[in-house]
Design a protein that fits this description.
heterodimer; A: mainly alpha; B: mainly alpha; Tetracycline Repressor, domain 2; Four Helix Bundle (Hemerythrin (Met), subunit A); disordered N terminus
């Protein structure tokens, strides 16, 4: 008989761990969103009006 | 009974679910140290000749803050064993068991690389290299080497805390000069009396953790002498910006008065050696030293802003 491959069992989270996971996910989402926005704003700030100066 | 094939099967291990909150990760960045770093870097940036776009300046400050936080995180990763036995640090996320050491290491390294790259992209390579060196100096030279080896740990290691105004200055100019060096020197000379005042009170903690702080290795009397000597050097060093011309009248007055206050408190620490009076004197010097550094840099900032506003005819 073939051996069944071992699959890791996902850990069961307590309500507290779930809440902490959610808080981490929210913070990470906010940071990533803020980072993308910051890159956009800095790009505009560094390039100024040159950002629109490109051949069409 | 184990099958022979089990040995060939790759073992898959899943780490237990993390019990860290977002706040725990933020605590790893040593936010109070980070706020001082941001403030001194801002002053360095403002005193630099030349112009930096405010948005780029903000991004540079953010990069410096995150870099400092990353260094703090790597410090907590390495020093988790020491932190666990000291009352002041036992509740930090790693010794309290909320964040694993591996998580902290990965977090610290990621932020280190990210902050250096970001600062390089936003400003210039020199400032980025300087930030990278500062992180290395704090995490490796101070934390891994000096801290557990010599009583001069915070004297030399204090350079890491003194670099941020130079990085802020370099973010604008791409170089360093006498102005940024004086800002560095003030923080560098300020660090030993500031930390040793606390170490006098927390001596037992450091001894228990095996950290060779000066009160542990050389004794309290020698530490009080050293505190006084460094304070006597610090007070005139604090006046240097006024002498060199980048601090105005307000700075000159404040630096002299507050410098005398530092000397007075250091003399009190030197004189009161026993019991509650000694503890109180040390804590007063520790608390006032924070105010002293903040005031010096705040007045430099206010004076510079006043000059800028006048030049632009806004006020």
């Amino acid at each position: 008989m073939m051996n069944e491959p071992k699959h890791p069992t996902p850990p069961v989270l307590t309500p507290e761990q779930l809440a902490q996971q959610r808080s981490r996910s929210k913070a990470l989402g906010l940071i990533l969103g803020g980072f993308a926005l910051l890159f956009f704003i800095v790009t505009i700030a560094k390039l100024g009006s040159s950002v629109f100066n490109r051949p069409l | 009974m184990a099958h022979a094939s089990d040995a060939l099967m790759p073992s898959v291990q899943i780490a237990g679910p993390s019990s860290a909150s977002a706040g725990d990760y933020f605590a790893l960045l040593k936010p109070r140290v980070m706020s001082l770093v941001v403030f001194t870097a801002l002053v360095g940036m403002m005193l630099a000749p030349g112009h930096i776009n405010p948005v780029v300046g903000f991004a540079a400050l953010l990069a410096i803050a995150v870099g400092a936080g990353a260094a703090g995180c790597l410090n907590m990763w390495y020093d988790a064993d020491i932190d666990a036995v000291m009352t002041r640090t036992a509740l930090r996320p790693i010794p309290a068991g909320r964040v694993s050491r591996d998580e902290a290491l990965a977090f610290g390294l990621t932020l280190s690389v990210g902050s250096v790259l970001f600062l390089g992209l936003m400003t210039n390579l020199f400032a980025a290299a300087f930030l990278a060196f500062t992180i290395f100096f704090y995490a490796v030279v101070y934390t891994m080497w000096l801290k557990r080896w010599t009583a001069q740990n915070i004297v030399i290691g204090g350079a890491a805390g003194a670099f941020p105004p130079m990085i802020g200055y370099a973010a604008v100019t791409g170089s360093v000069d006498i102005v940024s060096f004086i800002l560095f020197a003030i923080i560098f000379i300020w660090t030993p009396p500031h930390f040793w005042a606390l170490a006098l009170v927390k001596k037992g903690d450091y001894a228990k953790a095996g950290v060779p702080m000066l009160p542990v290795t050389a004794g309290e009397t020698a530490t009080r002498h050293q505190i006084l000597i460094y304070t006597l050097i610090l007070a005139p060093a604090g006046v240097l910006p006024a002498i060199m011309g980048f601090g105005g009248i307000a700075y000159a007055v404040l630096s002299v008065v507050s410098g005398l206050g530092m000397i007075l408190l250091a003399l009190r620490v030197h004189a009161r050696r026993e019991g509650e009076a000694a503890r109180k004197a040390a804590m007063q010097l520790f608390g006032f030293s924070i105010l002293y550094l903040f005031l010096l840099f705040a007045v430099l900032l206010v004076e510079k802003m006043a000059i800028m506003l006048n030049l632009e005819g806004i006020v």
